[in-house]
Each structure stands twice: as C-alpha cells, then as structure tokens.
Amino acid sequence: MGKINILSAELSNKIAAGEVVERPASVVKELVENSLDAGSTNIKIIIKEFGIEQIRIIDNGSGISNDDLERAFLRHATSKIREDYDLFHIKTLGFRGEALASISSVSRVTIKSCAGEAQGKMLVLEAGKVISEEYYAPIKGTDLSVENLFYNTPARLKYLRNAHTEQANITNVIYKFALSYPNVSFELHVDDKITFKTYGDGDVHKILSKIYNMSVARNMISFSGNNDDYKVYGYISVPDETRASKNYINIFINGRYIRNYIIQNSIIDAYGTLLMKNRYPLCVINIDMDPILLDVNVHPTKQEVRLSKEAELISLIKGVISERLANYTYIPQGMNNVLTKKEKANIEKFNFLDELDNKFGMQTEENNTSLFNKGQNEANFVKEDDIDFGEDNDIHKLQEELNSNNESHIRRQQTEISGMESSLPDLSYTARPRENYTKYGDKPTKKEIENFMNFSKREEIGEATKEEISNTIVKDNSHFDEIKNLKIVQDESMEVKTLPDLKVLAQIFKTYILSEADNKLYLIDQHAAAERYNYEKLQRDFIDRKNYKKQMLIPMMFDFSIEEAAEIRNNFEKFTELGIDFEEFGDNSYVVREFPGWIEEDEEEMIKIIVEKVLNNNKITFNELRNDAIAMASCKMSIKANQILSEVEMNKVISDLYKCKNPFTCPHGRPIITKMEKKDLEKMFKRIV
C-alpha cells in the first residue's frame, strides 16, 4: 500500500494557518491589511480576552460584493493579483489569498459586507465551512468578527504566551499601522475600553505622542531625501533619546512594515559617534519605491523582503539622516542627571501636571490583570514575538537657543546657526493659578500619579516609580477628544550648531571643567572633550597622511595559528588601507616594519589592537575598522580623568572643542558637556517652588 497521502482541504488549511495565523496579533494584522487595501479611512478594532474570545474589525472600505463573499474564504482566492506580472508589481499589503481561509479554518467567523449593492450579505463560517447565510440592509464597508480562535487546534492555544504579552502584540501591530498610515483613523477597543485612537489627520507627531509621550514627540526630528529610485522620509530621535533595544526602529516600505537588518543598521550607522555603545535611536522611516524593485513574496508574514539596488538605498538613508543630524546640538540638562530617581519622578510629575492635568486628567481604576500596566503605549511598541520593555532613559531638555552675536573670549571657529523650519503649530496652555499647584516636595497622592501616568504614558525612571502605577488602566476615554486638538511642536532651541561663549571657572574632581555662560553652568568632561578633538584631528590626519610611513627601529613580529593567518591574508586590503603592511615571515608568521603616519602614540600597541579586532570580527568593514582604530588612538593620546589642569590647559580644552564639528559627544557617544540653569539651582534651594 502506498505511503503518500493526499491531505484533505480541512487539514491543509490548518497547516497553512500555522504559518499565517501564529497568534491573535497575526489575525489582526491580516484583517487590518485587508481593510487598508479596501481603501478604508476609518478602522475600528475590537478585542476581547486578548483576541481569543473575539477579534472584530469594522471598516468603511469598498466592501466585498455578494457574489465574491463566500469565494473570498477559499484558499488562494484574492482580488489583488491575477497573473505573473502582478506578482512583481504588488501595490497592496495582501496578495497571497491565504489569510481568510486560514483564519476561518481555526475559528468561527461572522462577516457582513456590502460593496454598494441594494443589500449587504452576511456569512457565518466555522472551521472554514459556511454554516449560515443571510442578507441585511446595506452599509458600505466590512464588519468581520473572529471568535473562539484556535478552538479546534488546542496545541496552538497551549503555546500562546500570557494574556499581557498577546495583547501587547496586538497593540503593537496597531501602532505600526498608525505610523505607516497617519491619514487613516484607527480606534482600538480592548475589553470595552478605548485604549488607542488616531484621527486620520496625517499628523505623525500627534501619533508619536500617543505611542510614546509628548516629550519624545518633540524630540523626534523629520528627515527626507530621494534619488532616482527611492524616496525616504520619516522621523528620528535626537541622540539624547535612545533605547537599549533596536525594536524601536520601524521600517515601512510602500506602507508595509518590514524587518530588514541592513536598513536597520544603516540608520544606526548614520548616527556615527553620536550614540553610546549598545544604545539605539527611535526611528520611523518610510521608503517609497517602484514595486518592481521589491520582492515581498518571501515569507507568509510578508515582513521579509528582497530589494533591488539595496546599496543605493543604504547610501541614501545614511546620507539623509547623517546630514539631518549634523544640524542639531545635544547639550543635556544637568539637573536630570544630579537628582535621585525619586526626585526626578516628582519634578517631572509636577511640572507636567501644572500644565496638563487640569485639562487632560483622567479617571483610573486598579486592575492587577490589565495588560496596560507598565507604561502602556511605549512598552507595547516592540516586536511581536519578543516583548522587550527596553531600558529606561531620562528625557533631557535640549539646549536653549544661543546668541550667535556674542564675541568669543577664546579663539574658535565660527559655525553658522540655521533656524529650524517647522510647519507644526504652537503648543500652548493656560497656566493654572499658583494656589492650585501642588508644592514641590509635597508627597503626591496616588490619584495624581495615576492621572499623570495615564495621560503621558511616560517612560518612567526606575522600577520603583513604575510599580507605583503598574496596576492602572484607562477608565474614562473622554480624553481622546481633548488630545485630538493637541498641538505638538519641537523644541525651538534644538537646532543650534555652536557652543556658547564659555568662561572657565574651575576644575572639579580633577575630571570636569566648570564653566558659565548666559545664566547657566556648564560641566565639560575634560577627557571626552580632548578625545573628540583628537578624534576629528586624526580623521583629518588619516586622509592627509595615510600614505606616510615611519620606519620601526625593531620590526614587529606576529605568530598566528593557521586560522588566524588565513584571516590576516583575507584582510590584507583593509590593513593596507590603514597603512599597515604585513610581510610573510615563515609559516603563519608575519612582520610589520613601518608605522602608519596617522598614529602618533603607542604605535605598536595600536597595531596589535587593530589586528585583534580583525581576528575577533572577520566581517568588520574597513570604515568600521578605521573609525574604531582612530577612536582608540584618540582615547590613548587625550587628557585623562583625574588629571589636574591649569587654567591655560582648561582654556585650551575649550578652545579645541570649538574647532570640532561635533563638540557634544565623544567618539564613543558619551556626552561631553551638560548644563544646569540658574532656575534649576533656585529650585534646589527652594528659592522658587
């Protein structure tokens, strides 16, 4: 008897569902994609019991005709492609014709749809089979309800994560759609509560403020650029606003959310030395291209794609983002760094409540089982299969606009200040009377904490603060109508390209230079400042002196294992570009007779470190190797911490800093300079409350 079996249609659909319908969030994604492909401008998503009890999508799209409604639930049935040509010119989010068949095979589906006919049609399907059919009064659009998901595949239910995680995945999917389609109104209901709502007005800043918070939205800067094949545009965070996870980098191609590590890394690379190690920016990048350059038929989830002319796209992304970042300064507010976690939480709370609580306060209730416990919005905006709440990062207020007409008392290069163009409207509030303010230092009530946290969805500082509000959920949704009219503006002081005229006051802790300017105190990390100057100097020297060599008195000998020697041979070109020439000297041994001219100190040690970097990472590019080598060299030749400086030496550090293209971060991304305003000191001494 033969062993090859022809699988039944029911079993085939269940197998296909295992690829397409991994979890409730997958169902939401597929159904919302159908709504968007139908031209919907209003989409309501209703979730009960994290999608297992019900997922309901209501839209105002073109609808499905009566004749096509039942056919839409057959496998490989789609209105979006017809022939081979269409497969390589896909302009829709869906095209495989598998989603509805897969979903209906593992659930009970009720669908009502009308495409402008005299009456609409309703179908009820169970395990992929139609069990009921009737007609109803026409309302254009589609209303599709998925109930009892995975009722006939208990193994799938068994491997779902907890309710919080599954609900977070669903919310995350809606966030991505909202960012990619700002002209579409999305309304997410979770267990009879509105938890997220956009208004389809095209304002991405407003959406960012809902997903993260208003402070983050203000600190997201726009960018755009194009070449013959691609157009890229979106928002990136200033280098001061980072996360410990790459999951906050969101990539959309022709409106489709995708995962692409090459594009992701190109965005990170564009920041260069502005980011600290293991810190990553927030980003929303949209890429528009001719569909012929894109192959989305790679994976059933359609989140993996292949790109033509990928190198040109990467070059465009790096260039556009790097150029945009070059116009900004990043002087963190020192007050945020010196206060304790609890004090920072109190100050942020009261400053924010003074302006907003009266207008946007909300009622809350405790619920230990709510998904939306820890910073509802931002915490949920992570990849679907790995909920990573990331690492908390304090939100710094950026430098106020500086007076470019001041004459510097120290010789420096002048940098032109360009104003920030913004079409965003003003953000204005009516201040409350002072007697209504809660005094700084008073213990906040639990109610105040709840109101503040539910509005701002802030990423709080420290686990203790998180736990105080971890059980709150939204009870009153009237605030959405208030937020609809909210206006977000970027900090007008953000786009400044020069340092203030700093007057050196003293050195403290043998590590920091204390300065003042314009009623502000500035602290400069002497090592980081010197390191930045030397880094940029070595970058210039590398170009000017890369062909200049210095003869060694005693050649350097290297003895490698067979594998290491092979790596050295494979990377000869990189070493030569850096000015390091290896000569073979017996089996698996090499000799170096000359120093690169751009290395000024500890030449032998630097060469050893460069060799180790290549051996430890054989995929390192020449640019990465060069930048790492120059960063290491600049660190070694710079003034150190715990080194006493004279006034002349401190002024020299400041003077050199003025000559830097980026005087705000060291080559490793650490801040060079931080500030404390006079009013911050007055708050600390309770001169103002």
From TrEMBL:
Presence of keyword Phosphoprotein: no
InterPro entries in the record: DNA_mismatch_repair_CS, DNA_mismatch_repair_MutL, DNA_mismatch_S5_2-like, HATPase_C_sf, MutL/Mlh/PMS, MutL/Mlh/Pms-like, MutL_C, MutL_C_dimsub
MF annotations from Gene Ontology: ATP binding; ATP hydrolysis activity; ATP-dependent DNA damage sensor activity; endonuclease activity; mismatched DNA binding
Superkingdom of this protein's organism: Bacteria
Domain named MutL C-terminal dimerisation: residues: 504-645
Alphabetical list of SUPFAM superfamilies matching this protein: ATPase domain of HSP90 chaperone/DNA topoisomerase II/histidine kinase (SSF55874), DNA mismatch repair protein MutL (SSF118116), Ribosomal protein S5 domain 2-like (SSF54211)
Listed GO CC annotations: mismatch repair complex
Family: Belongs to the DNA mismatch repair MutL/HexB family.
HAMAP family: DNA_mis_repair
Protein name: DNA mismatch repair protein MutL
